[in-house]
TrEMBL record:
Name the UniProt record assigns to this protein: Cobalamin-binding protein
Entry-linked PANTHER family: MOLYBDATE-BINDING PROTEIN MOLA (PTHR30535:SF34), VITAMIN B12-BINDING PROTEIN (PTHR30535)
Pfam assignment, any one: Peripla_BP_2
Family: Belongs to the bacterial solute-binding protein 8 family.
Lineage of producing organism: Bacteria, Bacillati, Bacillota, Bacilli, Bacillales
InterPro entries the UniProt entry points to: ABC_Transporter_SBP, ABC_transptr_periplasmic_BD
Database matches in Gene3D superfamilies: Nitrogenase molybdenum iron protein domain
Alphabetical list of CDD domains matching this protein: BtuF (cd01144)
Domain Fe/B12 periplasmic-binding: 5-261
Gene Ontology biological process terms from the UniProt entry: cellular response to iron ion
Length: 262
């Protein structure tokens, strides 16, 4: 048990703190930290992750604030933490290996380094099981991930959804685009002809999104994913946050793609 007073201003960090058994040390979170619900719902909320109430944060007297550049725009909060001379740790994972590394870094920063290896080992075991299952597949599907509809934001080469796609034996439709995200056009999506389309709109609960919001777009009827009924709305918390929940998403993805292998 750590004696630190910890604040998390990014949902993925809150989830990693829970994986390390540190959620009881958390004294405040951003508004979007919603998991695990039973543990975070009563914690003080400090505003949306891009507009943290720094006065309220200071009042909570944190020993350590955990931020993450995986959320575009978080730089403003980091600058304020620096100005206020508040001890903080900034994570910015792009790959599966970097998520493992962040777990080790976070555990060390919070004084519980011995807990990291257990968590990493469990996640690595999940990856291995998924790879073994995907190895028996008969095809390598093209996967289109949509973070936001207007304009279209989709992951590029330097995002965890590219290796996630590869681990299930597929390919991220825009993995050839440099950087973390790419602003695609509808014409590009149609031309690249994805086999599966996944709506994971950041910050939007799955029950607020309908597949028709994608399938009804002009020209999309020509896309194989639409023709074959392979357009899905997935829980964004399992694919848009670089935490242990991403590995749950990985397990669910391989089941979705290859039900015949179950």
């Amino acid at each position: 048990m750590t004696n630190l007073r910890i604040i998390s201003i990014c949902p993925s960090n809150t989830e990693l703190l829970d994986a390390l058994g540190l959620i009881d040390a958390v004294v405040g979170v951003d508004d979007y930290s919603d998991w695990p619900a039973e543990k975070v719902q009563h914690l003080p909320k400090l505003g949306p992750d891009l507009n943290i109430n720094m006065e309220r944060l200071v009042e909570l007297k944190p020993d350590l604030v955990i931020a993450s550049l995986s959320v575009p725009g978080m730089e403003k909060n980091v600058e304020r933490l620096q100005e206020l001379n508040i001890p903080h740790l900034v994570l910015n994972p792009k790959t599966i290996e970097e998520i493992y590394g962040d777990i080790v870094t976070l555990a060390e920063a919070c004084g519980v380094p011995e807990r990291a290896q257990r968590v990493v080992t469990e996640l690595q075991a999940k990856v291995q099981r998924v790879q073994e299952k995907a190895a028996a597949r008969k095809h390598s599907p093209k996967l289109y991930w949509e973070w936001w509809p207007r304009p279209i934001f989709t992951p590029g080469a330097l995002n965890w959804l590219t290796p996630i796609s590869e681990l299930v034996g597929g390919v991220n439709l825009f993995a050839d685009q440099p950087g973390d995200s790419y602003t695609a056009t509808h014409e590009e999506v149609i031309e690249r002809a994805p086999d599966y389309m996944f709506a994971v709109w950041c910050g939007v609960h799955a029950d607020k999104v309908k597949t028709s919001m994608i399938t009804d777009r002009v020209g999309y009827a020509a896309i194989p994913a639409v023709q074959n009924g392979r357009v899905y709305v997935l829980e964004e918390g399992l694919y848009c946050r670089p935490s242990q929940r991403l590995f749950q998403g990985l397990e669910e993805l391989v089941e979705l793609l290859y039900p015949e292998l179950s």
